[in-house]
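Appendix B, record 7
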Amino acid sequence: MTDAPAPLRLFNSLTRQLEEFQPVHPGEARVYSCGPTVYNYPHIGNMRAYVFADTLGRTLSFKGYKLTHVINITDVGHLTDDADAGEDKLEKAAAEKAQSIWDIARHYTEAYWADVKALNIRQPAHWSIATDYVPQMIEFAKAIADRHCYELESGLYFDTTTVADYGRLARHGTDEGESRIDPVDGKRHPADFAIWRKTPAGETRQMEWDSPWGKGAPGWHLECSVMSEALLGFPFDIHTGGIDHREIHHPNEIAQNQAHSCSDASGARIWMHNNFLIERSGKMSKSAGEFLRLQLLIDKGYHPLAYRLMCLQAHYRSELEFSWEGLGAALTRLKRIVMGVQRLKTQHKEKYGAEWSPLHPPGEWTLQKFKSAMTDDFAQSNNLLQFDREISNDLGAQSALLEIELVLGPGAEKQSASDRLNTLAAIDDVLGLSICTISRTDLRVRPKAAKITEDEIETLLAKRKEARAIKDFATSDKLRDELVAAGVEVMDGDPLGWDWRLEN
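Structure tokens (predicted):
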């Protein structure tokens, strides 16, 4: 078995093939990810896209590339559907809440950033805010207007017949393709889309700018073309987004990029899309009231990293079905891993009389650095090499996760606790589960509805343990009933070593 790093192979939605990653700029990786429209809180399905993009970025860093990652914030221009009909989502939210559209955008941007932090998603090199780039969007539109656009009363529209092979990313015109485009009066072709949307006569929008086509706002698709070129340059390496972007938004981006470059270039060499998170009760919709956002999971007593692990347990191109049972199983798996890491830390301290510290800080692990720092025997260990093969195979995190449990298992005991911990730290630098820095008590999240405090729980448990020790089972049962009435499930003999958990 060779110990050479595995080539990084990624699935390109544009070609529908696995392709070996060959950077545009040697030694660098430039990635653009479609970010949120900040008119409401993100639901957990939205956040799956950013766990995927973060795993991609972490993998590129692990493979030794200098990463430049851009995530945009859409604070203008996104309508209530993916076509050119309906209301602006930000304008609509501001009107409903009787607030400034700028305040709405700021509030939900900060809420999204809080979820990013809770899920241990690394900060990108740039958060690109759409409204900061409106002048550049107008210049971009002016550069393509004469050859590729036409003007209607409602705005400036892109003629999709003026570029080669429009819609090839979505496979338009084949059984694989989809279409959700509503008609707009005067459009030459159904797939044509807005570059600039004029403010309707008699209306005033909170976000509007002067342009050669009248006062108004940019079309949603324009912002990503402009910001990706401005921050990464054309061509760049990878563009990511949800699979829903593959059908309309990204084909329209590609068309704009082709028009602006006067070529068939799509802007990015590789387009990657994560599949949907499926939830059967219908609570994924933001119109469902208490929809499934990350804070709801926390309020019910689940640590957010359990959701990150749940995402990693399915391949990013597969649908992932959400259930509370599945989330609970992911939390249990994470607890087991964290407890295994703690045992290794204890072994290390007992042997060396000092706390273990990793060879490299987070974000600086690479396979080559790891191998050069390990002992000669351990440098040939299959654990990290196999992890590298799995994660390099189109981000196969669901298989790569198994290497954590193998490192923690009895078969790895011939290796030192220090080497095993460094292996785990290197793996976790890619998976982002914080397994080497959090404790099992960190994973205890008190449900919002719980009335009893943790100190009260521990006091009652201690009394119950004393009663059981002297075989006073009547008192033990009484204390157990008291805990159950307070919403505490007592878990006698739990192999995890956890004494209790609060019911959700």
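Remarks on this record: The chain is about 40% helix and 15% strand. The longest strand covers residues 66-73.
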